[in-house]
Amino acid sequence: MARKLRCGDSTRRTFLAATGGAALAGLAGCIGSTDDDSVRFVLNPAEEQTDIVEEYTPMKEYLEDETGADVELIRAGSYVETLEALETDQADIADTSPTAVPAGDGFADVVGMRTAFGGALYFSTIATTPDSDIDDLSDLEDEVMTTGARMSTSGTLSPTVMLSEAGLDIGNFPDGDANDLELRTAPDHDTSRERLINDDEIVAAATGAFASAPQIPQEQFDDYPEFVEHSAEYDDAGGDIDDDNPELQLLAVSDPLPRAPIMARSEWDDPERDDIEAALLDASEDDLIPDDVDEDYELWFTGIQEADQNDYEPVQDILDELGLEFQDFAPDEEDDE
């Protein structure tokens, strides 16, 4: 029997603050058509150049082989839109951001936490250029800094807490302006890093370590033992430094953060749900990234481990520290981790 997409139907309050504009479904409409009886897997990229449907195709094929289900991959425009799709029965399962976990309580379940080379934790970094006069975070007062998307846990929210802990007045950022420095959001981690390199007005950039560590010499991370122990990025830190990817100077590393989850619609009660979720948790690196996949289309994660909402308490702590709720985020400029 064909599924009915209930575009805009919602069982809880809209995610947007009163000043944020129309409800998501009215702004974005249905995120895509779907085949009868297919499992609707909604995706959203974290990096500018990502062809996320191409990246997830090996996972789709693995899930179909393991379960016999027909899996449809649907690219969303933002993570707010992705969570809206779970709430309004436009998706059964989704690639979501860590920030979405507390917001999805009541209509979206955590299936598992994505891992990279065995690591379930990742980190934010704040970096500058080697020729700048910035030696520590306090030097950023009265300067211009770029961050990731407003909703990004590692690109914006965690770094904002880091700035506050360094004694800088962050004002209402990211739901408004900071007071002690100018903070500019970027659409994604890569763009934040590139703006630091290409815009002389910008003296520092916040990103997830996966976007910065390849251009930061490895020894600069040695003062951060948790990063050395837990980060999948440590072993190859500095490995991309060349004329096209200039060296960056590390200023600070965040506390460990839980990696992004896979979430499912709570009311998804089709028979294939248990099989899909079991196959996801059983997937090996070879299942997710087969040998014949072009390296430009490799997934950033190598496995999915069992997790629940309690594992994302550090994300809720960050939101609480900043006085934010998920509905404070408008649907533009959002990304994954």
From TrEMBL:
Transmembrane segments: none
Pfam short name (any one): Phosphonate-bd
Name by which UniProt lists this protein: PhnD/SsuA/transferrin family substrate-binding protein
